Amino acid sequence: MASKPEGGRLADDPLFQDTHFVVLDFEGTTPRGAPPEPIEVAALGLKHERGRGPGRTGFSFTSFIRPPAHAPITPLGIAQTGITMRDVAEAPPAVTVLHALDEALPEPPLLLVAHHAPTEGSILYNYREACPRLARTRIVDTLLLAKHVVPGLDSYSLDTLLAHFAIPQPAHRHRAMDDVTVTAVLLRTLLTEAAVGHKITTVAHLVRVASRPPRATQPTQLELS
Which of 5, 32, 74, 153 makes the best surface tag, with the fewest CB within 10 Å? Predict the structure, then answer.
């Protein structure tokens, strides 16, 4: 059942005006029998501009990441992203890169944004000691937001949503900064659609219908027992 409108306008929510949205994307490689490892990360900051919606803040971050020895980039991964082992050979490891990104984050209030956020959430959880702020920050998932704003589509993949809203494909799809940039456009488009239909009226409403709680804030089995 769709959520009922809560009244008011999202742009009038003081918390929405203050919140820094950081759109995040990883490109990765998945070794057999092990979790995915990042090989590239990008982040882009957005904040509400009255009368214009979320606009870029100047915060951005991008870096190659050298994967561990057990997780080389596969031929399939190279075909998808164009990133080769030569590109990442001299890059810092994930611990170093994610710590640097964590240190560079804007001050709260802060929300992360990603498309199909479990991918980003899993990597952040696995490296939570290096990036505690990132790992403990809620992620607004543009896939969940799209399902709330435009229900009934056959697919909610990023490519399908770009086509649905006539958003041009980025020049280098499946590269982190290009995917972050186009996800930022999608976020702005979805929030505009939501505002017109009063489908999202506050940041609390946005968080409730379109975010995923970070795993790092959930109790472990040991804590539950």
Answer: 32
